[in-house]
Structure formats: C-alpha cells, structure tokens
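Need residues for this backbone.
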C-alpha cells in the first residue's frame, strides 16, 4: 500500500476496517472509520455502531449509579444521548426509572447510616434534595426545566457538591437563573449560559467561577482569566472546585492567552501554599519557559506518586529532548512500557500510549540503534493509529529506510514532496538525506 493510500484510505477501505473492528469487539474504534464516510452502507453501519455504544453507556451509567458514582452516571448518560441516532427512547426511559430506583435505595441506606451527617448537610442544602426548600417549587417557571424533576435535582446537587462547602449556601440566593445557566453549561451550551451569568452579580464568587468555565468552553481564555482573577479577589485567594483548582485554571488560561511567564508566576504563587496543585501543568509551563531542570525535577516527583501515568513519561521525555538528552529521553519512554498490558481481555489491560510508542520508535530509528525493538514499536504504533498524521508518515518512511525495505526510496521521496519548508522539512533532510 502506498504512503498516501495508507494515510488516506478510501471510504470503502474504512468500511471494511470498521466491520473488522466491530468483529474484534472495538465499536468505538469502528465509529471513527465511519464518521464522514460516504461509502454505501456506511451510514447504516454508523447508526448501528452508535446505538450499540449508546447501550453500553446506558449500562455503564446504571453500574456507576450502583457504585454511588453520580458524576460517572451523568457522563455516561450524556455520551449515550449524544451517540444514539433514534430508536432507543424506551431504553432511556427504562434506564432513568432504574436510576431513580437505585438512587432511592441509596438515599434510604444513607439515611439509616448517616443521620447525624445529613442533619448537618441540610443546613447548607440549597436544592432541597434532603427535604428543604427547593428551587423547583411552584413559584418557579416550569418551562425552565423538563418533566424529569428527580434527574434535574440530582444533576444540580452534583454540580453544587463541586463548590467549596462554605460557598454552597450562596447558591440558593442566586436562584433559578443561576441554576438554569449552570444546567445549560452542563449540557454543553455555554452560548446560552454566559449571557445569563452576565446578568448576575459581578462580585459573587460562584458567578465568577461559572463565567470562567463558560468562557473557556467558548474558547476565550482571556475572558476566563479575567473572571478567575476576579474570583481570586472576591475570595482573597484561590480554592478547589471539585477536581479543579481555580488558581491552576487561572495559570492555564493566562498561558493560553499568550502569557506563559505570567501563567507560571500564578502557579508558583498557588503552589507556595498548595504544593500539590497543578503538577503536570507546572512542568509544562516550566518547559515552555525554558526552565528544563526544574521541569524534570517536578516530573520525577510526580512519577514517584503516580508511576502508572504514561503521559508523564512522555512529558519527561520531551523535556529531556529539548535539553538535548536523547538517550535519557529514550530511557524515560521505555520506562512507560513497564505499566502497560496490551492484550485485550486480560485483567489490567492498559494499551501503550500512542505518542510514547511513536516517539520512542522514531528516536531509535533516527539514531540507528535498537533496530529490532524499533521495528516492533513502529508496528505497534501503526496498530494504534486512528487518524494518521505527518509523524506517522515520517515514522513509516524512516522505518523503511533503516530496515532496508525495498519500497524505502519511494516512501522517502513521497514524504519529502509532501513536507513543506520549515522544521519538518529540515528533520527529513537531516535523517533521510537524498542518497
């Protein structure tokens, strides 16, 4: 197969690949082959695959509910709803009834075991979930919400639980407009949420937080950073909002606005009192600011705490490469494979990271070392690729050249002719010079 056809298979080839992936039990991978595919039968097969994936997500939502993972329930229900293309409405209704029943059982059990704790929580319960006054009463326009009140109450409760405990009481004062805006944002409609939030008080911490989230969802990091700076002024510092820290998000949005050094200063200030906040982001900002030694130290510390996080090994390798330490980068990438199991169906299955696999194969081939291992890694990388990029074409040509493939010259010339002037072209000329 030529390089271009390998990079851009025909619609029919993609349908055939999708059918094989379905037979192999990989419907999510099959879906990518069917998106935007005009081949005969592709649309029907895509509908079948998406409905199958929707059913899997419905089942997973129910399983997460039994485990008490309400966030996971919402995520998988949203995935199921986004995937299904019609015909599953009754299955959604049945699932919601089952979810309500499970939640009721959980509430009864929690009431039996944690009466004292619930008595404390009722004092700061803005939603009326445990019996207090609710936003969803008769004086609120019913058009704000759909008929499934239980589900909305649960969604709002989950969102409020992400707020610092001492701020939750303020949610009720903001009332239904704030609730509606937060629900719109949770539904992926920041375009509806942000105008409503702009009508609310500028000096309310929760309004500042949700404005920042809405602006970020609208790809406006500058506006998000402004809201987060205001949040820091209102609170006299930054706080945890669920799994996110407002200071780390301010550092990220400041950097995304073009001020990397400013983002780094923000995060340094945050970590002075909360040293565990934003570790990977801190390393990235240090790298972008050229502070490679400190970036490496941060990443090594993170890997001691999270040795199975493959992305951290890749980040460490990139830092070392930028510093000119290629062999040390190779060692970091090889270390990531100690935490993978690439045999589907086996307990603990964790496929290798595509970026790490591709980069290590490329480094070995560029330096002409460990060629047998490089060939193995190149094959593995090719099997993991969903949407081939220039890096995949470069690796294919590089492997053919180093491993003396008869088709090597043609692959290299095709790559060269499709690579514009600039750093990528310089890389081709350095490692794949004209014979």
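Answer:
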């Amino acid at each position: 197969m030529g390089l271009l056809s390998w990079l851009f298979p025909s619609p029919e080839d993609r349908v055939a690949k999708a059918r094989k992936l379905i037979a192999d039990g990989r419907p999510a991978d099959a879906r990518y082959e069917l998106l935007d595919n005009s081949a005969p039968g592709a649309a029907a097969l895509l509908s079948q695959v998406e409905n199958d994936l929707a059913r899997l997500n419905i089942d997973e939502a129910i399983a997460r509910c039994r485990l008490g993972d309400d966030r996971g329930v919402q995520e998988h229900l949203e995935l199921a709803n986004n995937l299904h293309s019609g015909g599953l409405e009754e299955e959604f209704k049945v699932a919601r009834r089952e979810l309500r029943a499970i939640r009721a059982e959980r509430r009864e059990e929690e009431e039996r075991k944690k009466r004292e704790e619930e008595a404390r929580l009722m004092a700061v319960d803005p939603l009326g979930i445990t019996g207090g006054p609710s936003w969803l009463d008769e004086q609120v326009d019913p058009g704000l919400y759909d008929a499934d009140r239980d589900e909305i109450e649960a969604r709002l409760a989950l969102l409020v639980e992400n707020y610092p405990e001492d701020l939750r009481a303020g949610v009720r004062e903001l009332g239904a407009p704030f609730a509606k805006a937060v629900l719109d944002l949770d539904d992926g409609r920041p375009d509806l949420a942000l105008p409503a939030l702009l009508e609310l008080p500028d000096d309310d911490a929760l309004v500042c937080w949700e404005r920042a989230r809405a602006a970020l969802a609208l790809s406006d990091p500058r506006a998000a950073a402004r809201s987060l700076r205001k949040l820091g002024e209102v609170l006299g510092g930054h706080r945890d909002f669920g799994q996110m820290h407002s200071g780390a998000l301010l550092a990220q949005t400041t950097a995304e606005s073009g001020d990397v050094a400013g983002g780094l200063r923000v995060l340094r200030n945050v970590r002075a009192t909360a040293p565990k906040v934003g570790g990977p982001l801190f390393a990235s900002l240090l790298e972008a600011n050229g502070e490679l030694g400190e970036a490496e130290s941060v990443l090594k510390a993170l890997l001691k705490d999270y040795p199975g996080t493959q992305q951290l090994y890749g980040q460490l390798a990139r830092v070392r490469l930028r510093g000119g330490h290629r062999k040390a980068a190779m060692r970091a990438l090889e270390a990531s494979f100690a935490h993978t199991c690439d045999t589907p169906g086996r307990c603990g299955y964790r496929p290798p990271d595509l970026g790490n696999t591709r980069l290590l194969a490329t480094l070995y081939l560029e330096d002409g070392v460990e060629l047998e291992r490089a060939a193995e890694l190149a094959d593995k990388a090719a099997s993991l690729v969903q949407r081939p990029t220039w890096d995949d074409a470069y690796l294919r040509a590089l492997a053919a050249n180093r491993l003396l493939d008869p088709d090597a010259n043609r692959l290299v010339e095709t790559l060269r002719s499709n690579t514009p002037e600039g750093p990528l072209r310089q890389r081709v000329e350095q490692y794949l010079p004209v014979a």
